[in-house]
Amino acid sequence: MKTKGLTKNKVNIVTLGCSKNLVDSEELYTQLKANRFRVTHESGKDDANIVIVNTCGFIDNAKQESIDTILRYAGAKENGLIDKLYVTGCLSHRYRDELEQEIPTVDAYFGTNELPRLLKTLKADYKHELVGERLLTTPAHFAYLKISEGCDRPCSFCAIPLMRGGHVSKPMERVLAEAKSFAQRGTKELILIAQDLTYYGLDLYRKRNLAELLDRLADTEGIEWIRLQYAYPAGFPLEVLDVIRERPRLCKYLDMPLQHGSSSVLKLMRRGITREKTEGLIQTIRERVPGIALRTTLIAGHPGETEADFEEMYQFVAQSRFDRLGVFSYSHEENTHAFTYEDRIPAEVKQERVDAIMALQETISAELNQKKIGQTFKVLFDRKEGGYFVGRTEFDSPEVDNEVLVSAAHASVRPGDFARVTITDATEFDLYGELAG
Ligand code: SF4
User: Structure pTM?
Assistant: First the structure.
């Protein structure tokens, strides 16, 4: 049934979840464009006759958000507001059978590695020559660069290997070609992502090869910042630190999810590292790369976590003084190792623990930010919002970290510009400043 006001062969892609999922949506977007589809990404306009929802299936909240989004578009289809609805990504990969039963309005469900089949369903061809030529949905000046897919780690709580499979490194030449292509199109910042960056090369080159990859990426003309997200602590390749210290294009920034601060819970989580070893690694990182910003992620409420374990994690956060930190409530995920444990900690207690850690981090972040007043930083501007130009220092990743706000009344910069900014004020999560002379 042709619905009034809809544009034929126009696809709206809706992405949920993490930056790795966003890269998948961008690859789909690029392929559809090359097949002469009109494509939008998360367009507010509702004239697309085809909607593709790229879902997240990581933890409870994310799964619920994905289901709500599918149901919203299923309702739109039942009301004739769209013609076709397709669902792909992690939730679809993990729960396809259940979803086909429960939401049959969806025309078809696809897994995380089924781009060619999805394209075929839309009567489009998968164009191999486009690999590495990805169009961006982020502002043109920064791009996520996925260097591997999947994960071989046994973390007890994690369902990602169920949805993304085992670790597969992207050949180094392909990563370098993708970086060069972005640089030629004006990208200035590359954010390296994977399930576990530090595993890079173990499958393909029989050795951890992240340091060599970074060193070669740092030769990419036009790229000014290269940032690392999702490093794993156990077996961390220390030579990476030397590249970060010696190559100016490498941001002095490292995101390393640590998940907990108590050795007994780290053991239950099968993280392959103790609190003492973790603290040793943090010290080594800070010694080898003076001034580096450390971001981490923690989980509160994992089965077996006692009050004393939580207190230990709280002290670990107080002592480690991370520059950036996020904390999640443990989510009891089917088919994970932790699903064999009993999830006895009440949801409200998990939430109390999350809130306590975040309140502590807020104080730490406020103290660290106060020390930045009077200092001058190189800032990459992302957008104009309200009366401010909003940007980031090399110590901040988009969407998750602090921002620098410069009054638009006294400055004129464009998104994608770098400028030196002197900090004049600070809150717990943001900095305010003026363009330096
Ligand atoms: S490293 Fe652990 S937490 Fe991260 S994706 Fe792999 S299994 Fe999951």
Answer: 0.96
